[in-house]
Automatic annotation (TrEMBL):
It comes from Roseimaritima ulvae. NCBIfam families: Xnuc_lig_assoc (TIGR04122). This is Uncharacterized protein. GO terms for molecular function: RNA endonuclease activity. It comes from the Bacteria. InterPro entries: MBL, RibonucZ/Hydroxyglut_hydro, Xnuc_lig_assoc. Residues 321-344 are annotated as: Disordered. Residues 335-344 have a biased composition (Polar residues).
Amino acid sequence: MNDLLQMTERGLYCKTGDFYIDPQRPVDRAVVTHAHSDHARWGCKHYLAAVDCEHLLRMRMSKDAEFQFLPYGQSIRVGGVEISFHPAGHMLGSAQVRLEHRGKIAVAMGDYKLGVDPTCHSWEPVRCHLLVTESTFGLPVYRWKPEPFTTDQINQWWRASRDEGRCCLLYGYAVGKSQRLLAGLDPSIGPIYTHGAVEKGTQAYRETGVQMPATTYVGSITEKHDWRGAMVVAVPSAHGSPWIRRFGPIRTAMASGWMAVRGARRRRSVDRGFVVSDHVDWPSLIEAVEACDPETLWVTHGYSAVVARYFQERGRDAHVIDSRHRSETDEDGTTDQTVTGAAP
């Protein structure tokens, strides 16, 4: 399969098509799985991505870059390789990259999750000979509750905080996680405000046609304001900063997959932790691999050694590769662990 995909110091490389998937350094031709900065690197000359990724990718990249966008399922030939994008369920515009050449099929899934998310297309299985999967939460301890369960938890917390006369600050990654959180909020509880980084990403979602509740940018409030009963969706780096002093009495919460681990909330110094991840949990990872049924499995960023060993013991040709992607830990602005393709 080396003519389709190989690991290089710049990331996953397709020699036949002469392009990289989610390159780790600037390259001439980048095929991008989604718009998070650890997958969509600034400085490449040409970007190819799914069409739903357009507003987010243009928002983050140089205006001098060249862009090309494909609808899900539509293919393009590059150097004899057929490339198509298929929903990954990670966030708006996220995609699995399917490559086909001389009857062989490789799929690089990037970041992905199974299940329903109102802000993006749901993951779909793509059968292949070679599959590249992430393993950010690749341990049996990571098992997510259904979406309505967590949404209800967050709204109940907000309602109780409102009744105490407090403002809620809910922290999540600026692009992807925050919009998913916003989509689940009940506007009847109170007004919803956003940190500037969150508002910018939310506008890109709206421009793509995703329905969002009404929000107000915090920075647009210039006069003295009563924040009691409000919900503010913000980035984790805002926690403990002078920015939050304006809100008066507050309750704080972090939304992250890492909240499944005991002690994670305490290390963040927040009042509540909600287990919300845009990555696959342990059972979903296994389900996804079995559905794609690859002859060869490459496992990257996260608990990759554990996941590879699990599939090896079940007869699959599974290997660890080091793609040097950062994990959701870094996306959430924290530093619990460094993930470089080996089990931490």
